[in-house]
Structure formats: C-alpha cells, structure tokens
Fold this protein.
Amino acid sequence: MNSLNETIEFDVVTIDESVGANHKRRARLFAALGLAVAVAGSGAWAYWTFVGSHYVDTDNAYTAAEVASVSAQSEGTVAQVRVVDSQAVKRGDILVELNDADAKLAMRQAEADLGRARAQLASANADLERSRIDLERRQALIASGSVSGDELTRSKNDAHKADAAYLAARASVALAQARLDKAKVDLGRTVIRSPVDGVVARRLVQLGQRVLPSMPLLSVVPVQDMYVDANFKEVQLKDVRPGQKVELISDLYGSKVVYHGVVDGLDGGTGAAFALIPAQNATGNWIKVVQRLPVRINLDPAELQTHPLRVGLSMTATVDLRSQS
C-alpha cells in the first residue's frame, strides 16, 4: 500500500514538473514572438520614416510623345509613297508625292500671266511719262497764248487717265505675282515631307489614292522625345513637384534597364474630369473613388537612344520626393 502511494505521488510530481516546463516553454515562445513583432514593427517604422516616406511610385504609367499627324495640304492623286510603318525618317525627308502635272500647268500659266501684266505695266508707265511731259509742255506755253485752255484741260485729263492706268497695271502685276506665288506653293505641296525626326506609324495613304486637303495620311512619332504620363493617386501627390528625379522601369526591358527622368509638371485635371461622359457626383448613389492625376515625366534622350521606347508601353515610376534637379 505504501509503495502504491509513493508511485502515485511520484507520478503527480512528474506531471506537475512537465506542466510547469510547458508553461515556461510557451512563455518563452510568446516572448520571442512578441520580440519578433516588436522588431518587425520597429523595422517597418524605421524604413517608412527614413526611406519609404520619401518616395511615391505607381505602375499606372505609360510612354507618350507629341505625335506629328501628316495630312494632305492640297488635292491630288498619290503618285508615290516612299515610307512604310516603323520606318525611321528625318525632318525634311519625302514621305509622299502627289501627281504634280496640274500644279506645274497652273504655275506656267501664272508665270505667263505675270509676264503679260509686267508688259502692260511697262506700257502704262511709258504712257504716263508721255502724258506728264505733254502736260508740262502745254503748261509752259499757256502764258504765251500758244495753247488754249481746252487743250490744257484735255492734257490734264490724259495725264490723270494715264496715271490711273499705271496704278491699275501695277495692281495687276501684284495680283499676278500673288497667283504665281500660290502656284509655287501648291506645287511644293505635292511633295509631302516629314515635319520631325521619328518613326512612321499608322500609314493610311496608298498609291493611286485621291486625297483632299486636311486628309490624314500617316503619323510620325518622335521616339527621341518620348515622355511618360504617370497616373498617381491624388493622396500621393502632396509633395510631388516639378524638377524632382524619377526612376522608371519599362515592362519592355525589365528591371535590368533603369531610366532616369524628371517631373515636368502635373496635369490640369484628372482623367475623370476630362472624360467624354464625366461622373455625375451629384446623384444619390454616389460612391467616392480615389482619383488619379497624370504627372508628365521627361526622359533622358541619351538613355532613349540606347534603349528606344514606343508610344503606349507600360512603365513603373518612382519619384524621389527629396530630390530637385
């Protein structure tokens, strides 16, 4: 009986010691967990305070450019198309040529009209000089009675008519010159040149097509002058200013290629404000939505030359709020 009691007492002591050890181990685990949470929280606070709060970023960003739309400036038939989509061109390069037969004919006609007008002007000038000389001669003789008053009057009228004819001939020369200048301009417009350096895109014009003034033919994208429209949330923009430095990564090249840009400015309104159908915020079922404002970021031309971009590519932009270029 004593042995049984001693065994029971030993087992109770063993269980108590095991429970105590588990409590201690659990307490140490909770202490370690609390310490880890405190360290993680401190680290997160320190990172945000000293690093994270000085940057804002967005992946809602896309490349853009001031695309040059090339249109016809005169009516005509397309005689030659010298470019294709994706072709690089320089400013002044010939893109499209229209049939210039009518324009050349109009210019030759204008040249002939100008020649006739100048001949008429010369004749009118000679008549004016003769009428003036005749008037001066008769005025000199009027005192001696050799010339009657009627003759003097006729001479004055002839001089006035000659002067009017001369002025009309000079106006005709000016009009003929204007018509010739316009004919030369129209002839020049049959050759359509690139307004900027860039890459041809959206070529719509085809050989033999009849085009009219203002008809779009193609576009030229100045890829060397690309910029980025980064759409930041309105809550991110409190400290964003023009001149701040930006690091950008394109989906095209990945994180191995980092572009360095500068904030050029903030747009005048959100996308919702300029939408074709703006939001009706005065309705009863209004729900607040955080808006985004486009921020224009200029890119480094040297980096663009090394790693070219195209319009509409996705980018990730990170603005250094402490910087000012």
In short: The domain at 55-66+222-320 is CATH 2.40.30.170 (Elongation Factor Tu (Ef-tu); domain 3). The first strand starts at residue 55 and ends at 64.
